Amino acid sequence: MIITCDEGEMELIGPTGPIGPISPVEYVPGDYFAAMELGKLFEKEGSLEVDLGCGDGSFLVAMARLHPERNFLGTERLLARARNTCRKAERAGVTNLRLMRVESGYAVKHLLPAESVVRLYVLFPDPWPKRRHWGRRLIQPEFLEAAATALGVGGELWLKTDDADYFRHMEKVAAGCGALSREEWKEEMPQTDFERHYAKERRRIYSMRLIKR
To answer: Which residues have CB under 8 Å from 212's CB, separation 6+?
Structure first.
């Protein structure tokens, strides 16, 4: 058992993940080494959309309110952000949203069943701007391969960043993934907390939409 600290808070971590949920919104897998049983997550059946690294949950909760016919799953590693997302979901009264505390790449590769997801969102991931840290970036060839496996035919991967260098990296990686093809970003969506902040600073936002064929 390990005790970890996150922004002044402490929690217990077992050998396979967090011990116990922090909220009824949180989903704690019974087995972190097997694909999830999605039928146990939501009250109603619906298409599944996954927000990878959901931050404070602003985008995730807004989408769940706008689309009650869909189901939404957020992943977030940091405890404080996970708590914020759960609180927002509880206040909004949405029942089509669950949160899982886990690394986004691990969730896509090991926990999401094959062809189970309609949309994956990666919105303003850590750009790791220093060259020696580029290998830590989420968007890598192996991630896109795992994402393509999790997506059903016609499923979509939506990407946004304010970092021009990271976006060029995304474009290069996407061009080398034969399972996903790039399409125009057409849909207006709620803003994340980062996007609202960047909009005030008048930063340019780069976006990409990839489709599984």
So the answer is: 148, 151, 152, 153, 154, 155, 156, 157, 179, 180
The CATH code of the domain that includes 93 is: 3.40.50.150
Q: 6, 56, 126, 162: which one is catalytic?
A: 126
Tokens 């969102």, residue located? 121
The tens digit of pLDDT for each residue in 15-63 reads 445 556 889 999 999 999 999 999 889 989 999 999 999 999 999 999 9
Total structural domains within the chain? 1
User: Is there a domain that residue 38 lies in?
Assistant: yes
Our measurement of the distance from residue 190's CA atom to the centroid of its chain's CA atoms, rounded to an integer in Å, reads 15
Asked if residue 8 has pLDDT above 70, the reply is: no
**Strand pairing category for 2-6 and 180-183:** unpaired
Position 7 scores a pLDDT of 45
Is 51 one of the catalytic residues? no
Domain that holds residue 106: 16-212
Domain membership of residue 34 (yes or no) is yes
The model's pTM: 0.90
Q: Are 166 and 191 in contact (CB under 8 A)?
A: no
6 within some domain: no
Please say whether the beta carbons of 162 and 124 come within 8 A.
Answer: yes
pLDDT of amino acid 17: 53
